[in-house]
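$ fold --in a.seq
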Amino acid sequence: MKLLVVDDEPGLRQSLRLLLGEEGFEVAEAADGARALERATKEAFDVVLCDVRMPALDGLGFLRQYRASGGTALVIMMSAYGSEESAIAAMKEGAYDYVQKPFRADEVVLVLRKAEERERLRREVESLRSALGAGAASPDIVAASAAMRAALDVVTKVAPHSTTVLFTGPSGTGKEVLARELHRLSPRADQPFVAVNCAAIPEALLESELFGHVRGAFTGAVSDHRGLFENAAGGTLFLDEIGELPGSLQAKLLRALQDGEVRRVGDRNARRFDVRVVAATARDLASEVAEGRFREDLFYRLNVVAIALPPLADRPEDVPPLIAAMLARHTARLGTPKPEIDPDAMRALLDYAWPGNVRELSNAIERALVLARGGAIVKTDLPPSVQTNAPSPAATARPAGELTLRARQGQTEASTIRQALERTGGNRKEAAALLGISVRSLFYKLKQLGIS
């Protein structure tokens, strides 16, 4: 990373040049703002480390003229005691950060490392945007299977509108990823995306988190508190695990959605809000309604547009591109080179049923990257359950003859596949066409269900 140090003290410039040179930075110097401006407009720098107080042209003046000339480097201000307000003023003008003199060497290095990481991420985002093109799907989304392409198509169609959307599907299938994509493609994209897991917050605190409270509303309420509806103003509020919402709050959420306003706990006055609500659940809410655990009127209020995400076992076409995407993301984050995947390891990854869905696959890839040696991921780098293609601990703990919908669904699928194979005389290509799935999906289900 190329760095320009701007300070009128020669000793400080020399110290920083030696220190930062040892840290791997390419360091140039300027004795005042005018010389720095002349140099920075002719050369490309990644970061400018600039003193606030200097003769002729001070740090704030340099920053203004540098930005006006089209300069894009991150500017970090150095402020002595008593000039901190000037540094803060410079940040309001667009400076990235500031360090206060006298500073320790590790303080400067830490700020520069953060700036370096920000620049790396910015360039990566620009590269991805260029590669994807305007309006293309986020790189976090893999939609090779027909089911995911259909879900993404609905997301794209509904994004321009403020319609409430309900994502359903097992845990780990990517409901929040698609919710964020819905927000990114919407007119609200430059406003907040606020997510809350309704199952992760104690019932006693959840109302305050959602709607806020006023000072004195309860013991410990020492000041007014904005709720998540207010924090998401103009943007999107994502209510994950909505099926876990307590009954008392279901009624209050319904009222908020109907009236378009919220009332902080302890407040007599209601506040209007402009928020798009998107919800997600791993539960079958229709069954929850039938059994009296979820309000029918709230269900219909949330279920205006329903988007169902199938488990990863039902869309094996997504597994290879997901592996490639996760390798790219995890290697970038861990700072490791991208390894090859040994054929036996790849076979194990493709054969496994992934009961934990995309989240389990991501964890398995990260684990393999950490354990891999010699530039390749081998089978022994994978989790034991993936190596042996064993059922998950949750699956082995289920009693024989269980009555869960997933178990019954598996039994029905197995019976239907056997009938299709019988009708086609064992021709798997014709059986796949009869079932309305790809041959690859049929092979995957045959292995998953133990059908020879």
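$ fold --in b.seq
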Amino acid sequence: MTERRVAFVTGASRGIGKAIAVHLARAGCDVAVAARTVHDGEMREHSSTVKRSDTTPLPGSLDETAALVEQEGTRAMGVFLDLTDRSTLAPAVQRVLDQWGRIDILVNNGRYIGPGHMDHLLDTPVELLDAHLEANVMAPVILSQLVLPQMLDRGDGFVVNITSSAGSSNPPAAAGAGGWGLGYAMSKGAMHRLAGIIAVELGERGIVAFNLHPGFVATERMAQDMGAFGFDASSGAPADVIGAAAAWLVTTPAARALNGEWIEGQDLCRERKLLPGWPA
């Protein structure tokens, strides 16, 4: 029997990461789901501004996502990981390698959640900019360095980085009024370069990397938190759109020709008709 491929998805307790995990399972992958929220109801700071605190529980957990993965008929492993704490990264990856022996697909989806995201430049403590860079740039780089050697040993592997146009364009308004802050923008801009470097350096050795751009997506946190900052979750695409796009990219041979490129997830899903019933 052919050994199933193993995916490692960060930020998988809810939103886009959760959808990607489920769609990869539907495509036949075992999935290690990684995030901070292991159990339902855990309380962590998720306010986007220094002006107030919000630790009310967000919907979703690794327990919930793992159960959905297993409903698709493949294995799930919940792995605690904090992208702002480097000490948690290597143990998370090693646990998967020890128990399942491989990681074929790395999805760098998780990002910094917390104050500074929706604050103006002059109101943002510099240590919060550091937190953005740590979670959104350095953690994906470190995770890539951790998983790529065993991919190279097999001559095959995928790295999918969930990117954002915030890193390549000016916001339509100031942070808090429909735009975003510097930390999010500059960290996503830096992350953009990772996929291209991987493709150039390792493409001939079987490694494929993409920047997958989700566009505006109606996630649980978008609905709960972001209305106050000028974002209407009801106008976003379902997270399943990006889940279907990610699964197509790592399971379709033709996608290898896109190595190192920026992929518009919603356009890909629409053009390839990857999600039945969407768009309506």
